[in-house]
Amino acid sequence: MDDKDLEKLGITDHLTRSILGSHFWVIQVDYAMKSGLPIPRKNFLRDWKQLYGKETLENFPAYLDLIRMKKVAPLFKNKKFKDILEMDSQDLKHLGVELARDRLKLIKNFWRIKRRIFFEDIFKRIESQDSNKSN
After folding, report:
1. How many CA atoms within 13 Å lie on the side-chain side of 23?
2. Rounded to whole angstroms, what are the CA distances from 1 to 22, 85, 116?
3. 123 and 93, same structural domain?
4. What pLDDT does residue 47 have?
5. What is the mean pLDDT of each run of 10 residues along the chain (135 residues)?
6. How far apart are CA 64 and CA 9, in angstroms?
7. Are 31 and 60 members of one domain?
């Protein structure tokens, strides 16, 4: 049972659907382990690439839509992506993001983006060092 199935059943709250989906996944894993079946995998990588892929990050309004924050997209018009990532709660409040939970959600996602960029940079450095050593 996935998010869309739960929504069809009338569960409209995203957090509730997410929690139920996680519980269903745990049940599937438990059943698979007891039955000797292959363990089902969550779509973490697919979801990660969709949320933090280069194409998505280059289109910030589309990214905000993916994290269900489309309503604040107009506030970031004419802002540089690098400057957006450095914003803190006060900056976001000054910009017009009134609700504390929205500011927190944005800041958490900014940190995820910064971590992804950091790790991509590290992996590129490691790969270049490995290729230099082999030459």
Report:
1. 7
2. 10, 35, 30
3. yes
4. 58
5. 81 84 80 76 56 67 84 90 89 95 92 79 70 67
6. 27
7. no
Output the pLDDT for position 45.
Answer: 47
Residues 55 and 105 in one domain: yes
Q: How many independent structural domains does the chain possess?
A: 2
Tokens of 76: 């970031």
CA distances 128 to 23, 29, 41, 53, 114, Å, are 42, 39, 32, 21, 21
Q: Could you write out the three-class secondary structure of the chain?
A: CCHHHHHHCCCCCHHHHHHHHHHHHHHHHHHHHHHCCCCCCCCHHHHHHHHHCHHHHHCHHHHHHHCCCHHHHHHHCCCCHHHHHCCCHHHHHHHCCCCHHHHHHHHHHHHHHHHHHHHHHHHHHHHHHHHHHHC
- Do 58 and 122 sit in the same domain of this protein? yes
Structural domain for 99, as ranges:
44-135
Residues 108 and 128 reside in one and the same domain: yes
